[in-house]
Amino acid sequence: MTQTKTNITSSKRMNKEETHMKAIMYHTDGSPDILELKEEDMNPNRRTAVLVGALFLISTATFILSNALISPIVGSHNLLAAVADHSQLMIAAALIALIEGTATVGIALALYPILKRQHPALALGYAGMRIAELAIAVVGFGLGGLLLVTLSTTAANGTTSETLGTLLVALRHWTLMLVYLYTAIGGLMLSYMLLRTRLVPQWLSVLGLIGYVALLLAAVLDMLGLIDTVAGLGLVGLVPGGLFEFLLPIWLFARGFNLTASDRMHVAHISD
Question: What domain range is 26 assigned to?
Answer without folding.
Answer: 2-39
